[in-house]
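Reviewer 2 asked us to include a model.

Predict the structure of this chain.
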Amino acid sequence: MLVLNVLLLGLASTADISPQVGSLSSLVGASAKIAPVTRGLSVDFTITSPSVVSVSGDELKTPSWTGSCKLAEDALTYADGKLSANLALNNGSGTSIQGVRFDFVSAIESYKAKKDDGTEEIRTRTQSVTFSSPCYFGDLADGESSVSIPSFASGIQFKPETVNVTVHAVVSGLTYHKQFVRPKNSLKGCGVVVDNNGDVIVGEANHKTLWKFSEDGEFKSELGTLPVEGREVSINTTNGDLLVGLYNSHNDARVTSDGTTTSAFAANLDQWPGIARFDSTGKLYLKTGTTITTFTDYVKSSSSTSKIGGFNLRASDPFDLANDQVLWVIASNNLLKVDASFENATAAVKPGTGSLGELLPTSSPVLRYSPDGEIYISEEGISGKFLPRVSVFDSEGRFIRTFGQGGQKANTHVYLPGQFKSTLRDFAFGKNGQVYVTQYDATCGLNEYIKF
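Predicted model (structure tokens):
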């Protein structure tokens, strides 16, 4: 079972905590690499002459917001091939937005050219341009404005045949959407999955059943009858069966889609079973003690050693399957990329002391690989220095963002909606950009975020 831990950070020690915002290259650790982001809310800077720049799309909206966010461009200029501005984001979305960053993506030139018959037409081509580091706005409360961050695109060419050059950018992050609450009961969240129908199924620390919600938080039903509280939850997508970790037990429960509950293994295991993942064929990978063991039809087939890639695997260290050939494993606060035979491993993300893109020392981290190829890792924080957070990396181990820390006035310290208050237990992902996060806290046990 996952070992519960107490957050290393209390409210009384937050007075000297400053938010990590600014040019992203100045915020990441020495060993970290920054992932490019090309998807998000579009903003275009169009240069129509060597001195005229217009902006479109800087009034940002999504279907889940009741309002809009405004990208403010101060000192916007184009001169000597360089587009520059000081950028800030004003959050009027109606909720908190988190892990927000601004990235320049591309520069497209429209130019005049002659066709074979001598007539003129407008064509486009990509220009090779140098972009500044992404602007990292971090977490913003509703009504809060970010600091202003310098940004530029240089090497833009404006030739005699040029009509205009459009520099395309995106603003990306997560919207805090809502808490999931079962009527008249607390929800002290543990494992969470999204089933084949898009419903959200969560294990809850105070009850001997699973709870099923719609993708947007409507409580639908209880599922299964467990001998003790259900903790870790995983899903076999080949048949919809759920594997549920049981509190203080050497066996797991197997729950079918109609709620039928049986013991997963014919006999109790020698070690407490922990995190479990199924591959696309239904093969089971299960954390047992300090090893990862594979099962076919719930019969043991192979096992790793307690050391992977030269790093000791702790009982509380998590893993996830990226596909049938790759595992992502945390060992000794390193994120390892491991092949399915456990033979080859490389350290993709290394531990650090709090800079973005390096892992904070964490006794019971959570790790999940999302369907769109992102790796989500929970970090407990460091007392008096860094708030608890979730860090997100791409499939090469490059840093994308953190979220859940609180806004740019965090040192005051008032919790934002969606900011983490307790031990994180699991992540799951919906089909429409939803990110579900469980916390071991009855007041905020399951939160929903939506990527933009």
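Residues 11-15+178-451 form a domain with the Neuraminidase fold (CATH 2.120.10.30). Residues 211 and 222 are 5 Å apart (CA to CA). We have added this to the supplementary material.
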